[in-house]
Write a structure and sequence with these properties.
InterPro entries: Pectin_lyas_fold, Pectin_lyase_fold/virulence. By secondary structure, the chain is mainly β. The protein has helices at 2-22, 31-40, and strands spanning 25-28, 46-49, 53-60, 70-73, 81-87, 92-104, 110-116, 120-122, 128-130, 133-134, 148-152, 158-160, 163-165, 168-171, 179-186, 190-192, 198-205, 209-211, 217-224, 228-230.
Length: 236
């Protein structure tokens, strides 16, 4: 039994060391290098963006692993920007950069310390968005219409300490079982059409809180200068 225990521990440590050794840090300075790094990334790799701006429609389609995500890091939201990024793979970690247009269609990804300045679509599942800001410069045909900053159709996505300004966040009917906490919304609506969401410590200024899904739970939601419409007290 002792021999088996030692063998198991040794195998576990050896596997961990292999993962760590195989991971690499790739510094990129051009748009072409960035897409190439996205195409060649392995679990545990980190892609460091070393220029101010990366122009193009970039796609991250490979998969990381639960313990070793693929990471994209910039300097900060003011010094590094990407025009368009689609995260189609799973287990990516994206932080410290600005993004103009963002689509997350993969699952189990993380976005933190980011600033997104246009439309966001989240169609994947179990993604974690935290400590990030979202706004839009998109104009509607009708000046009375409020543009949509973020649309969520996936399940199990969580949003913590985010700020949404200048437009609405819409949780669509097909979405389910997510969480929004410690977040603020200004000059736009929070529209919850999905079901079984948990929301806590939310402030809304200059917009409405509209909840029409079922099975949702709300605590500490404050609305200033806007209407509140909740019609989903029933269970699903």
């Amino acid at each position: 039994m002792a021999f088996k225990s030692i063998y198991f521990v040794s195998f576990f440590l050896f596997s961990f060391i292999l993962v760590d050794v195989n991971a690499s840090v790739k510094e990129v300075t051009t748009s072409e290098q960035f897409q190439e790094a996205l195409n060649e990334a392995s679990p545990g790799d980190e892609i460091l963006l070393k220029s101010e701006e990366f122009v193009g429609n970039f796609t991250a389609k490979l998969n990381g692993h639960p313990g070793t995500p693929i990471q994209i890091s910039g300097g900060n939201v003011n010094s590094t920007s990407i025009t368009s990024l689609q995260v189609a793979g799973d287990y990516w970690k994206i932080e410290k950069l600005g993004i103009y247009s963002l689509v997350i269609s993969g699952s189990n990804n993380q976005l933190s310390s980011a600033s997104v300045s246009d439309i966001v679509f989240i169609t994947g599942n179990s993604n974690k968005i935290k400590s990030s800001s979202f706004t839009t410069s998109t104009k509607t045909d009708n000046e009375n219409d409020i543009p949509v900053v973020m649309t969520v159709t996936g399940n199990g996505n969580s949003f913590k300490s985010i700020s949404v300004a200048g437009g609405s966040m819409v949780l669509k009917e097909e979405s389910c079982c997510g969480e929004i906490s410690s977040s603020s919304f200004s000059d736009g609506d929070l529209i919850v059409k999905g079901k079984n969401y948990v929301m806590d410590a939310i402030s809304i200024a200059g917009g409405a809180f509209i909840a029409t899904g079922c099975g949702n739970k709300y605590t500490h939601v404050g609305v200033n200068d806007g209407p509140t419409q909740i019609t989903n007290a029933k269970e699903c």
